Amino acid sequence: MKFVPSVIVKACALTTALSAVSFSSFADSPNFPHISTTGYGEVVAKPDMATFSVKVVESTMTAEQAKATVDKVVSSFLTKLQSAGVEDASINSSNIYLAPQYHYPKTGKPELVGYRASRNVTVQVTDLTNLNKYLDIALGEGINQIDNIQLQVRDQAKYQEKARLEAIKDASYKAKSLASGFEKELGDVWKIDYNAQSVQPVLMRSMAMDARTESSTYQDSTITIRDRVDVVYQLED
């Protein structure tokens, strides 16, 4: 069963300033009566894709053995992913990281006790229903650490546009309400300040290497996409 993104749109009512001079977020202060408003909007969407990062870590007595073990696990994992239908473009495998491990006695020089090797693999999941299957493959092939799972939404630009339009409506509504409350007429827009809002994906960390423990949690999660706009309106007598 495929997940279909569902959207709930709402506007957040926050404080709006009414003044004869602009507040600090507007560098150029107009010399006429005006209202400065900030509009907020947000879209709540159900995730339908994900990106997860896993790592295999191995410590052995020799660098060659540590590297060989890690490379074997990663190679097997990538082969199984490709067999499961994951495209090469959706997989990113890092180079191996190899570091000596030392024991530090209270006296004397550090003692070399072995080598630690690790490699990361990041996988983009275009169908969220396959996430559990890919994580199970990782477990079965010897991956011993899940770094994170980022839940995401397809067509993010479309949802960002919805949030932006809600922010514009919110700013306009506040300006009209304030002008009416102070028995003033709302004039034209004098200035618009806009900075695109960054979207934070839903980040989940697995405390244990068991993909099933997170399954119900990420399937029921939502992503909130926010936007804002700062607007200065002229006031008419």
Task: Please characterize this protein's 3D structure.
This protein is an alpha+beta fold and 237 residues long. It has four helices and eleven strands. It has helices at 63-83, 131-140, 156-181, 215-219; strands at 7-11, 17-19, 34-45, 49-60, 91-93, 97-103, 111-125, 145-152, 185-193, 202-204, 223-236. Strands 4, 5, 6, 7, 8 and 10 form a six-stranded antiparallel beta sheet that branches. Strands 1, 2, 3, 9 and 11 form a five-stranded antiparallel beta sheet that branches. Residues 1-26 and 206-212 have low confidence and may be disordered.
List the helices and strands and how they pair.
Layout: E1 7-11, E2 17-19, E3 34-45, E4 49-60, H1 63-83, E5 91-93, E6 97-103, E7 111-125, H2 131-140, E8 145-152, H3 156-181, E9 185-193, E10 202-204, H4 215-219, E11 223-236
Antiparallel strand pairs: 1-3, 2-3, 3-11, 4-7, 4-8, 5-7, 6-7, 8-10, 9-11
Keywords: Signal
InterPro entries: 26kDa_periplasmic_antigen, SIMPL/DUF541
Signal peptide: 1-27
